[in-house]
């Protein structure tokens, strides 16, 4: 690109050669620690607690399932499409995304924001392809690790637990670093230790009361708040008070056109989509998001909480909602940062500050003053709450379902066969082909129709003392006691995990790592788990030995290749500073991710073929998935959620549908996942990049068109977020009340009248 001859400054942003003294000293912000504390504790914490209490009463008086341990981890299993969409976008929009995407934009220009968004969205829209198989083959599972345990047993399960918890730690590390950087930058006298304590409060306070359902509600309002702040920034900067911010879009374009971009950009321009560095970062983002989306229990529990079709469409819409956030926001803050740097003649921030993600806080402070600080604090805090609470619920669910329930206190001390009832240990058959004498099979009646259980519920609800009477039901009583133990453990797990965040945060903040390093190299540590999880859910021939070998070998080779390449850069690995800098280089991370993913994938496939070469028949496949269909809660079987769907499709079954019947039931959702996923991949990876990279660099009218497109798309998604989720939730609550509560109240009234007459 030939730069305009009238540019007064042709400016190069060489981040790693900027000294601390060259940064603007006015980048420190003005809020005091006590002000931030009030905003966080009373504002966001108090609001989240109110939402949690509201959700608790809705589950108690409308759905009547507040005491079930499963409800805490699946929100009732029937979350609406739109709430799933908004929550998926919110929980996958980390504070690191809010901060780090602006960093990428300042380094690579408009291409940085685009490829950053594409890297994450690709995984959001691919997730339904996997989750619809999970939901049809293990509809009663609350964690993806339960599928691995049911299929492969102890060893593969333990290895997968380690990788799942490592993924949670990577996510929490990014949250802690992003939250600490933002809070200490906004409040000029806040210590990192105090910031960690505030974050721990945000993560765990309301989750203890409302469980996963409260997380959905808070995530929705987080999404609303982010879009509200995004609209305020966009309208003020571009349409209402543009003279006070950018002057005009043309003036902004003229200034950023004077910036010398990186060597990989077409003509060293920052207004081009032809950027090799941005594309490489996009590929790294795909790997990172793959590790987070597919290997993080927090993502699975969102999908588990919705029915298959709602979950598929919800994640597709969630991807669009997510895509509409970083592009307009970070294009604005990142490009204004470059523009302001042109005005000053030097970068506004040091390389360390840029890698900490302080571009957006600085620019919003410059544009809006104290209100800008409050806005960035609000967006970061809400993102911390929704994502952090999801991680706490994820870790707690792993502890309850995959550690305590399997290894420390199983209901049965021996392995129960897939065709056995865990309550009476009698056998049962599945599918419409079951005929003959059913007296030899399980005859346990359901909780809803059990008179003894109804009497127990009535007696316990009327008990005013803290000590409740024992269950008297001979069939379900013992298992209900066991569920009470799990429910109490759930509460303590949330407390323990929340408290553990404080020492974890102190270690992280004193380790010398930064957000950029945690964000990029963390993918190498966890991406090897991605192929094994996918194959465990989708391929019947996968074996436990293959899962173990794929995970461990992929991690070893991937991390070794990343560290090996990093050692060849200037400074090598001779100290902590050079280690963090060189292992976070794009090429190092890309090589590490590729080796980790590739070795894990091919190892898992190869070992599976060698160790399971005889399992080729259709019956072998059915027997394998019967293991996962047997994952269930006998008090509230998963088949109850699909009774209406099964009846509508005339599917006959005895105890639970067979594997083939579940495949038939979810055929529509599966087709929607494949068709929708293919279309979105084509759009985001081929169509959009192809159109944008036709232009070597953007002329002003093309730049204006891209900005306008991002704003229009953002406005459309904002309307959806503001209107559709609350409308659907109100309709569902009203339907539940009309179908179940009103008839029950009428029945109680009629019974009272009859008693008076007698």
TrEMBL record:
Q: Which InterPro entries match?
A: DUR, Na/Glc_symporter_sf, Na/solute_symporter
Membrane topology (UniProt): Multi-pass membrane protein
Q: Where in the cell is it found?
A: Membrane
Q: Per the annotation, which location comes first and is thus the protein's main one?
A: membrane
Pfam families the record matches = SSF (PF00474)
Q: Does the keyword Transport apply?
A: yes
What UniProt keywords apply to this chain's record, in alphabetical order?
Membrane, Transmembrane, Transmembrane helix, Transport
Supply one GO CC term from the record.
plasma membrane
Q: Which residues cross the membrane?
A: 34-54, 114-134, 155-182, 194-217, 224-241, 278-300, 312-338, 358-385, 489-511, 517-539, 546-569, 589-610, 672-697, 703-724
**Coiled coil spans:** none
Q: Which PROSITE patterns match?
A: NA_SOLUT_SYMP_3
Molecular functions per Gene Ontology: urea transmembrane transporter activity
Q: Which family does it belong to?
A: Belongs to the sodium:solute symporter (SSF) (TC 2.A.21) family.
Q: Which named protein is this?
A: Urea-proton symporter DUR3
Task: Name the species this protein comes from.
Answer: Owenia fusiformis
């Amino acid at each position: 690109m030939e730069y305009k001859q009238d540019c007064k400054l042709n400016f190069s942003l060489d981040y790693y050669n900027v000294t601390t003294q060259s940064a603007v000293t006015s980048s420190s912000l003005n809020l005091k620690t006590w002000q931030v504390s009030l905003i966080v504790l009373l504002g966001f914490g108090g609001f989240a607690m109110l939402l949690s209490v509201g959700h608790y009463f809705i589950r108690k008086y409308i759905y009547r399932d507040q005491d079930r341990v499963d409800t805490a981890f699946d929100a009732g299993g029937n979350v609406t499409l739109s709430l799933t969409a908004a929550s998926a976008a919110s929980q996958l929009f980390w504070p690191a995304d809010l901060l780090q995407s602006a960093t990428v934009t300042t380094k690579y220009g408009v291409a940085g924001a685009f490829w950053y968004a594409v890297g994450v969205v690709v995984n959001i829209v691919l997730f339904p392809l996997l989750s619809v198989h999970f939901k049809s083959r293990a509809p009663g599972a609350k964690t993806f690790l339960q599928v691995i345990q049911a299929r492969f047993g102890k060893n593969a399960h333990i290895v997968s637990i380690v990788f799942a918890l490592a993924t949670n730690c990577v996510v929490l590390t990014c949250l802690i670093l992003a939250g600490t950087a933002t809070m200490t930058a906004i409040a000029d006298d806040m210590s990192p230790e105090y910031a960690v304590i505030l974050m721990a409060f945000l993560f765990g306070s309301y989750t203890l009361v409302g469980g996963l359902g409260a997380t959905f509600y808070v995530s929705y309002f987080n999404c609303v708040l982010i879009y509200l702040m995004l609209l305020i920034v966009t309208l003020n900067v571009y349409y209402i008070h543009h003279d006070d911010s950018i002057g005009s879009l043309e003036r902004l374009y003229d200034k950023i056109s004077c910036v010398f971009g990186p060597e990989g950009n077409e003509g060293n321009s920052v207004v081009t989509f032809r950027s090799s560095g941005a594309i490489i970062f996009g590929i790294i983002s795909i790997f990172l998001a793959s590790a987070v989306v597919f290997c993080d229990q927090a993502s699975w529990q969102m999908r588990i909480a919705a029915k298959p079709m709602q979950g598929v469409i919800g994640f597709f819409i969630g991807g669009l909602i997510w895509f509409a956030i970083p592009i307009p926001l970070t294009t604005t803050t990142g490009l204004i940062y470059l523009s302001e740097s042109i005005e000053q003649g030097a970068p506004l921030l040091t390389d360390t500050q840029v890698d900490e993600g302080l571009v957006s806080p600085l620019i919003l402070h410059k544009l809006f003053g104290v209100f800008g600080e409050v806005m960035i604090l609000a967006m970061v805090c809400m993102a911390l709450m929704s994502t952090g609470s999801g991680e706490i619920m994820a870790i707690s669910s792993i502890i309850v379902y995959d550690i305590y329930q399997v290894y420390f206190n199983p209901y049965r001390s021996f392995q129960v066969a897939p065709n056995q009832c865990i309550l009476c240990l009698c056998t049962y058959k599945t599918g419409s082909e079951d005929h003959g004498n059913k007296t030899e099979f399980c005859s346990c009646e359901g909780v809803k129709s059990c008179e003894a259980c109804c009497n127990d519920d009535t007696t316990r609800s009327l008990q005013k003392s803290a000590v409740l009477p024992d269950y008297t039901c001979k069939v379900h009583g013992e298992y209900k006691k066991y569920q009470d133990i799990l429910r109490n453990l759930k509460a303590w797990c949330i407390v323990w995990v929340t408290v553990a965040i404080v020492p974890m945060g102190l270690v992280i903040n004193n380790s010398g790592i930064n957000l950029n390093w945690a964000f990029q190299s963390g993918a190498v540590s966890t991406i090897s788990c991605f192929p094994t999880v996918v194959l465990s859910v989708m391929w019947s021939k996968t074996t436990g030995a293959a899962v173990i070998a794929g995970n461990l070998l992929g991690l070893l080779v991937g991390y070794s290749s990343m560290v090996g390449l990093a050692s060849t850069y200037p400074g090598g690995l001779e100290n902590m500073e050079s280690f963090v800098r060189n292992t976070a280089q794009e090429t190092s991370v890309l090589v590490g991710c590729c080796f980790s993913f590739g070795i894990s994938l091919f190892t898992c496939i190869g070992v599976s073929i060698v160790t399971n070469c005889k399992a080729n028949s259709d019956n072998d496949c059915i027997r394998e998935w019967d293991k996962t269909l047997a994952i269930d809660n006998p008090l509230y079987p998963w088949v109850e959620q699909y009774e209406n769907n099964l009846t509508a499709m005339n599917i006959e079954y005895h105890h639970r549908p067979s594997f083939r019947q579940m495949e038939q039931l979810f055929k529509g959702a599966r087709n929607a996942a494949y068709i929708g996923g293919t279309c979105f991949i084509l759009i985001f990876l081929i169509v959009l990049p192809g159109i944008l990279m036709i232009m070597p660099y953007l002329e002003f009218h093309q730049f204006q068109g891209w900005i306008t497109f991002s704003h229009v798309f953002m406005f459309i998604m904002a309307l959806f977020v503001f209107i559709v989720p609350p409308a659907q939730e109100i309709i569902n609550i009203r339907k539940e009340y009309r179908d179940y509560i009103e008839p029950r109240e009428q029945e109680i009234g009629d019974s009272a009248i009859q008693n008076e007459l007698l």
